[in-house]
Q: What sequence folds into this?
């Protein structure tokens, strides 16, 4: 108690000055409507900033929850889309009849600047993720699952010199191989398209029907430019990807339930 009293005595002039300044401020505000208005407007501005910040924080967590709901809804809709019969447009809602299953995941590591790029996702064997499952985003294809652990998987990116994916020009049956020359992370190359095929810059490239990994017509990108190869028989087509490969977060894993049966049948046919 004595220390408090000594503190007040030692700084009595400072306390007195502060007290008188506060009284002067109050009298000034009360006697002048302009100052009174400015004071209350400033108070409202500070209060508004505080409430605004609190609302932004609350909105952030709310949006995060809403985003997860949208991801799950997108997963359900894609499952229905991939299992829609193009002949009669009838949805196969019975899980025993579904050809493709879809699982959502998040990217926790991504590389896009080396010749052989990979991504790591937060789903693994415990989530029924397996090798050779297709990986896509809402914009288009991303890659193929290469290895899995209990809770994580690595994905061979389309930006990988080992990548080779069946692709075609949209609304045609002309297909070729989608590869990457390691020059630009924004573009890949479509090769083996015959020169007789009419193509135009801006045409859309999608996955082909010859793939046992991806459903047909998954978007890939658009034709940026093209020329003929050395033999002058096939096109070399530069394809600008729909995906921003440097900024990928939410992905979807696509599993073809008939893939193993197809592979076994093809193996038997090859051995004969």
A:
């Amino acid at each position: 108690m004595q220390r408090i009293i000594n503190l007040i005595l030692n700084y009595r002039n400072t306390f007195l000055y502060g007290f008188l300044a506060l009284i002067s401020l109050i009298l000034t505000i009360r006697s002048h409507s302009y100052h009174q208005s400015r004071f209350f407007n400033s108070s409202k501005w500070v209060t508004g900033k505080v409430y605004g910040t609190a609302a932004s924080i609350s909105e952030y967590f709310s949006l995060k929850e809403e985003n997860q709901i949208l991801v799950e809804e997108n997963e359900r809709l894609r499952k229905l889309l991939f299992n829609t019969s193009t002949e009669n447009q009838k949805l196969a809602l019975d899980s025993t009849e579904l050809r493709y299953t879809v699982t959502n995941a998040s990217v926790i590591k991504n590389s896009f600047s080396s010749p052989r790029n990979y991504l790591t996702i937060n789903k693994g064997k415990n989530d029924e993720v397996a090798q050779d499952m297709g990986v896509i985003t809402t914009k288009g294809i991303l890659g193929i699952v290469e290895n899995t652990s209990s809770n994580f998987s690595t994905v061979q990116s389309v930006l990988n010199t080992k990548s080779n994916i069946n692709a075609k020009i949209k609304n045609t049956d002309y297909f070729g191989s989608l590869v990457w020359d390691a020059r630009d992370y924004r573009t890949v190359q479509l090769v083996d398209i015959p020169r007789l095929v009419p193509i135009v810059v801006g045409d859309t490239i999608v996955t082909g029907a010859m793939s046992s990994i991806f459903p047909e017509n998954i978007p890939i990108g658009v034709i940026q430019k093209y020329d003929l190869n050395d033999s002058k028989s096939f096109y070399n087509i530069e394809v600008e990807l729909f995906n921003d490969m440097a900024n990928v977060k939410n992905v979807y894993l696509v599993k073809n339930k008939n893939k193993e049966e197809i592979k076994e049948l093809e193996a038997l046919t090859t051995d004969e």
The domain at 102-259 is CATH 2.40.10.340 (Thrombin, subunit H). Residues 85-96 have pLDDT under 50 and may be disordered. The chain has four helices and twelve strands.
